[in-house]
Amino acid sequence: MPNPPTRQRLLHCFVAAVFITVTGIVTLGYLRSKDDRSVPVKSMASWQTADAPLGFPLPSPKDAPAPFDSRFIQLTAFERAAIPTATRMAPAMGSEASALTYNAQPFWNDNTQRGGHHTGDDINGIGGMNTDLGDPVFAIANGIVVYRGEPSQGWGKTLILAHRTLQGQILLSMYAHLNQNNSPFGDLVHLGEPIGTVGTANRSYPAHLHLEMRDSTGVHIGRGYTSRQGEAINASQTIASHQHRHSEHIHPSPLSIVLSERLKQQKDRLSIKNASDVTK
């Protein structure tokens, strides 16, 4: 059994160790509180409110969690890097000079019955009504598909493409009320490529293409009519300003050549594989 002086020394050592440990914990806690930049958890009511993402307001405890606002959905860095350059633009229907089509309801036309200004252009075939049902819809420029789906009955099948102008600006074009939606999500498309066909949005309207353009990097469907312009821009004017009808721009889009060559190589490889399977 340790003698009294030994016990006293052990007690002193124990007290000193406890004091050093407590001092260290307090010091680390103080430094951590100054340096920590992480977002504090404010609520565990749902996956959405756990971290209060992107400044989205938290609901009061008595309310159910609010639905996520799709305006916060932005293109990722990888998606932005993949956006091809739109060397020039052309209309989405008819000929390259918009022949055989007309704009039945131009951008920002005031429609009080529907609650505001029109956010896009309603492009119709020259015959009107359903005479253009099933007509091809073309990509207005080189782009990448960043949305493909049917957001609601009234929108019908919808595509959104992202484009990069020669100045580096990112623009989005939206094609709604489609009868057929031919381009998968993430697909690269070239200027003038058929990406779908004109539809009626589940027979909600006579056949036409609702074409929108936005100066934005957020994939947001929104409404067809609004009181505030926001990110919406005039599609017809934007396309006209990027048409570049000079002779040096008449050649096919370089992206269309690359995609055609890629498709041809895939077909050639498939033909070789099928031929080898037959000989086995």
Structure, described:
This protein is α+β, with helices and mostly antiparallel strands. The protein has a domain at 75-259: Glucose Permease (Domain IIA), CATH 2.70.70.10. It contains four helices and 13 strands. The strands form two sheets. Strands 1, 4, 5, 6, 7, 8, 9, 10, 11 and 13 form a ten-stranded antiparallel sheet that branches. A three-stranded antiparallel sheet has the order 2-3-12, with no helix packed on it. A hairpin with a 7-residue loop joins strand 6 and strand 7 (157-164). The model is unreliable at 47-56 (pLDDT under 50).
What would the keywords be for this entry?
single chain, Glucose Permease (Domain IIA), 280 residues, alpha+beta, ten-stranded antiparallel sheet
Quickly name the level 1 CATH class of one domain.
Mainly Beta
What is the end-to-end distance?
89 Å
User: Poorly predicted ranges (pLDDT <50, ≥5 residues)?
Assistant: 47-56
Mean pLDDT metric:
79
What order do the helices and strands come in, and which of them pair?
Elements lengths: L3 H32 L41 H6 L18 E5 L4 E2 L4 E3 L2 E5 L10 E3 L4 E7 L7 E8 L5 E12 L6 E2 L4 E5 L10 E6 L10 E2 L5 E2 L1 H7 L12 H26 L1
Antiparallel strand pairs: 1-4, 2-3, 3-12, 4-11, 5-10, 6-7, 6-9, 7-8, 8-10, 8-11, 11-13
Summarize the structure.
The chain is of the alpha+beta class and 280 residues long. It contains four helices and 13 strands. A hairpin with a 7-residue loop joins strand 6 (143-149) and strand 7.
